[in-house]
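Quick one:
INPUT:
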């Protein structure tokens, strides 16, 4: 059967995505007479865990196919491949043994990698052309290097006059906003923009800007702000004078809304200025003045409304422009700090011979992508004919644009194939350049290649129980009809219905908590989680069957602490950290107390642990009795 060489799979959760990937990968190997065909296949996914899983699935499947037991009891994968390739079971069995042996003995060429791993390979290959040190190190812990750059910047305060002025301005602006004086926290937060793929193009535009450039811009903005404020005040006073000259009183207008609006504008009291229906009332000529107003005054107001309406819109435009200018002005100092941090980061990278992993895609996009494709392959030292890209919905725009030339070159040959697998509903990496619309577009009408694409749905859910799939189907249908306005999103969720394959019932329950004070949120939520766990235990489930998912780490810590206090043993990334072990913290505090015996804060920490350990109710009395001990 002739099929397109460019295939896109829309694979919802539990639809057999990995099964399909492994099947299609093996079909390429089995349909070739070359036992080293796997060297011509590049499979890309997003995490090292996914890479390990895919490799192990392929090897494990080949091991099963290599066992003679498969001929007597063939599994679904074996039967499917035999059927789709029109190959006999014995022949497939023999080929599996040969392929397994070849892959194991050439495991380094078994190229299933993360997209970062592949881009790293390209960067290494072109290091000389890019004038990069041939022995550069890849810094995976980007936060550590960013923190070092921030510390280096702050250490220069007092020695560099221009920089010191910027840092002082930043501190003053924070104080004016009633925020923390800790600049390093804000700087570390700002610095993360330097490694965000969404922000890199904008950061590049600031690369050559000096601190004096920001100073000049700030001065220009200050001048523009004054002009905008003057314009607003002048026009507002024009309306007020017009009202006064026509012997009109504020009370002549409904609730004095119209004159009060312009009075606020004249005083530059613009917060919430348009949170009413005044614009609609002026436009429709209704509700402007009181119903009992004498006819002569009503006539005067009606005659003034066209001019008032014109000035109203002029002021509104000026107000929003002023807000933009003020917002821009407020961010000039942080931008100048960001530029300074970027320069410090560049010095550190050069000094330590390091590159950030987040830079790879931008470098390839700028320097390598426009090279002739055969030249890239020649430099890599290998030629891929087949590409598999998993979790495509999380591929960033830049990553996809970097891959298109390679994939296009492969698809221009008779033997080349490209397979994309994804689910736009599972897109979770927008913060680093991922764009679900990219996959939606490919799944619908877009096609960057000259050959026809084949779009396949994987409609069945092989993972979840009946009620869970039923709930999801209903929920997605609700989103399609009641929530989304974008037709692409509507279609995506409207067609997200999955076929139920399991007979087990399953269970779904939604609980909405009535939380009046945000301070009580953690306690109420954690208490309900505990009740749900206890209910599950009463119904015969084990603790190992239960997983608690939260949105934010701090919420997870609150739930974990609450469950631990109620004698529910838990395992989480947080609880496994040493600094979250009360015993380890106690030992650390005790050792610190030996060095600082008069430190009352450390004494309280030690006493608090002991009070908890010995179940002492009156902690205050316990502290008072023991804190003065030598």
């Amino acid at each position: 059967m002739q099929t397109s060489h460019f295939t896109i799979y829309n694979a919802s959760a539990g639809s057999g995505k990995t099964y399909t990937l492994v099947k299609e990968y093996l079909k390429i190997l089995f349909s070739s007479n070359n036992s080293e065909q796997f060297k011509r296949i590049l499979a890309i996914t997003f995490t090292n865990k996914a890479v390990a899983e895919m490799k192990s699935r392929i090897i494990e499947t080949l091991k099963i196919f290599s066992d003679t037991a498969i001929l007597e009891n063939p599994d679904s994968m074996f039967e499917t491949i035999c059927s789709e390739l029109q190959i006999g079971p014995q022949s497939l069995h023999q080929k599996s043994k040969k392929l397994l042996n070849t892959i194991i003995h050439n495991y380094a060429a078994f190229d299933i990698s993360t997209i970062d791993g592949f881009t790293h390979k390209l960067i290494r290959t072109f290091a000389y052309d890019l004038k990069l040190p041939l022995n550069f190190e890849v810094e995976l812990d980007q936060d550590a290097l960013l923190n070092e750059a921030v510390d280096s910047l702050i250490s220069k305060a007092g020695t560099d006059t221009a920089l010191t002025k910027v840092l002082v301005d930043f501190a003053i602006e924070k104080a004016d906003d009633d925020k923390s004086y800790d600049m390093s926290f804000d700087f570390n937060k700002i610095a993360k923009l330097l490694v965000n793929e969404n922000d890199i193009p904008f950061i590049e535009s600031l690369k050559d800007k000096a601190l004096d450039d920001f100073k000049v811009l700030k001065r220009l903005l200050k001048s523009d702000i004054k002009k905008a404020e003057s314009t607003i005040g002048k026009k507002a006073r024009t309306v007020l004078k017009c009202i006064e000259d026509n012997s009109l009183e504020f009370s002549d207008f409904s609730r004095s809304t119209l004159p009060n609006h312009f009075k606020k504008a004249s005083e530059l009291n613009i917060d919430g200025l348009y949170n009413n229906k005044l614009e609609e009332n002026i436009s429709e000529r209704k509700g402007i003045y009181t119903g009992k107003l004498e006819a002569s005054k009503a006539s005067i107001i009606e005659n003034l409304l066209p001019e008032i309406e014109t000035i109203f819109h002029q002021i509104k435009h000026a107000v929003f422009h002023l807000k933009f200018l003020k917002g821009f002005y407020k961010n000039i100092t942080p931008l100048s700090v960001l530029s300074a941090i970027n320069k410090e980061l560049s010095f550190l990278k050069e000094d330590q011979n390091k590159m950030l992993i987040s830079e790879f895609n931008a470098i390839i996009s700028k320097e390598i992508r426009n090279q002739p494709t055969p030249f890239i392959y020649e430099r890599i030292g290998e030629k891929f004919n087949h590409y598999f890209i998993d979790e495509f919905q999380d591929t960033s725009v830049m990553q996809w644009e970097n891959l298109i030339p390679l994939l296009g070159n492969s698809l221009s040959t008779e033997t080349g194939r490209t397979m994309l697998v994804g689910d736009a509903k599972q897109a979770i990496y927008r913060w680093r350049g991922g764009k679900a619309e990219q996959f939606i577009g490919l799944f619908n009408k877009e096609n960057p290649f000259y050959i026809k694409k084949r779009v396949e749905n994987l409609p069945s859910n092989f993972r979840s129980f009946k009620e869970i799939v039923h709930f999801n189907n209903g929920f997605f249908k609700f989103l399609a009809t009641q929530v989304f306005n974008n037709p692409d999103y509507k279609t995506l969720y409207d067609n997200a219905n999955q076929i139920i394959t399991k007979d087990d019932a399953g269970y779904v329950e939604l609980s909405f908590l009535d939380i009046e004070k945000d301070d009580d949120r953690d306690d109420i939520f954690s208490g309900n989680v505990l009740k749900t766990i206890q209910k599950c235990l009463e119904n015969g489930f084990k603790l190992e069957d239960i997983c608690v998912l939260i949105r934010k780490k701090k919420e997870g810590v609150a739930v974990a602490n609450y469950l631990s206090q109620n004698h529910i043993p838990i395992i989480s990334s947080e609880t496994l950290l040493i600094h979250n072990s009360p015993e380890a913290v106690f030992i650390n505090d005790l050792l610190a107390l030996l060095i600082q015996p008069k430190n009352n804060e450390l004494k309280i920490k030690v006493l608090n642990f002991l009070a908890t350990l010995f179940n002492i109710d009156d902690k205050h009395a316990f502290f008072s009795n023991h804190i003065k001990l030598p």
